[in-house]
Backbone:
């Protein structure tokens, strides 16, 4: 079996749970040394133990990606420990309020934009500088199909993810000649703790006789929600040399949900 990322150094923000954790696990299985960054130390250390339990190499660095000083320190620590940064997966995010736009609060807006959009920008700012200095690298930003279309009761979240796609495409154009590839993945509904939190407060959005969970499954041609591991496969492919001619792309991983829109 080919190990796609043998000896590479990979960073995953929001790597302690959900898509981030699945990605960190798969990166390690593919031979990368993984740094997991998130605000939750207990979950982050648990993810590190899981990777090490499979024989992989991983470290945890507590980081709030909305703070420039913490992101700068994070990238500096990665370089101090490993000497380089080959792959960066900017996945940290929050779902925000589930409510119509006029009912959203300023505090909720600020939190979502600070983490989901500013956080990705800050990570890219320091990752790109390091990758340019070392002669190349690959960045994958986790957006969502909310970054491709409107989302009822999630206007601020959708705006933040549209911004991530815009940052991705712009950076890809700016840094292509520096051999830094920048792409995004746009997952559909994926079974994570974040999705469970949204379901807990979301209204039933189709016929009253259906549950919200069943409605989401019915929207997807595949007839089910996705698994974090399925999104991780797309992310790792974009990080690998198999995607060497792919940059500026927003790869939709949604079981066909967007195909009919």
Residues:
């Amino acid at each position: 079996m080919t190990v796609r990322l043998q000896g590479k150094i990979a960073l995953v923000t929001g790597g302690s749970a959900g898509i981030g954790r699945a990605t960190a696990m798969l990166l390690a299985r593919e031979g990368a040394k993984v740094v997991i960054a998130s605000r939750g130390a207990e979950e982050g250390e648990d993810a590190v133990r899981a990777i090490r339990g499979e024989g992989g190499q991983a470290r945890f660095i507590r980081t709030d990606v909305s703070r420039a000083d913490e992101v700068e320190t994070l990238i500096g620590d990665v370089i101090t420990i490993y000497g380089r940064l080959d792959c960066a997966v900017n996945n940290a995010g929050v779902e925000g309020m589930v409510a119509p736009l006029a009912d959203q609060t300023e505090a909720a807006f600020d939190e979502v934009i600070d983490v989901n959009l500013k956080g990705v920008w800050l990570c890219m700012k320091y990752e790109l500088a390091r990758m340019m200095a070392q002669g190349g690298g690959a960045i994958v930003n986790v957006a969502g199909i909310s970054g491709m279309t409107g989302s009822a009761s999630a206007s601020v979240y959708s705006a933040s993810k549209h911004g991530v796609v815009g940052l991705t495409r712009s950076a890809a154009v700016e840094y292509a000649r520096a051999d830094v590839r920048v792409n995004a993945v746009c997952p559909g509904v994926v079974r994570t703790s974040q999705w469970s939190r949204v379901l807990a407060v979301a209204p039933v959005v189709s016929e009253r006789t259906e549950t919200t969970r069943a409605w989401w499954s019915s929207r997807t041609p595949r007839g089910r929600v996705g698994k974090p591991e399925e999104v991780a496969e797309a992310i790792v492919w974009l990080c690998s040399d198999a995607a060497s001619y792919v940059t500026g792309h927003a790869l939709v991983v949604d079981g066909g949900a967007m195909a009919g829109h």
